[in-house]
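Example protein was shown:

_____
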Amino acid sequence: MTTMLVLPLAPLQAKEAPPLAEDPVLEKQVNAIASELRCLVCQNQTIADSHAELAVDLKNQVRDMVHEGKTQKEIVDYMVHRYGDFVLYRPPVKPTTYLLWSGPFLLLLVGIGVLMFNLKKRRQAAMDDSPLSADESERLAQLLHAGTDKKNAS
């Protein structure tokens, strides 16, 4: 009985996807270049990993340029000229990208500074031994007296 249910599904078995280029060497080169370029839609994936429409278009452009005989440097330079350093998955360290590279560390330092300031402020507030004002003393006495009355009533 089970065989009869599974038998019609036999033609639906998964098959390996055919490479987009007939030449596996060319496809390997395309993937190497595509893994160095950032998907401008996803921003945390390379165009080799992304399935976004723009990433597929960029990868096809890379494939066409490789097919035309352009070098990896020429292709990467073209993409950088067109989209800026942001298209590089690992942007170079240069004056225009210093903030990009140092930003996370600066944010960490600012966060630590704010934490230290707040801890110091909290510690000073806890150590403050100033006497209670007249209103605070009266309120404290009322609370203590009310607590004593409840205790004696039970």
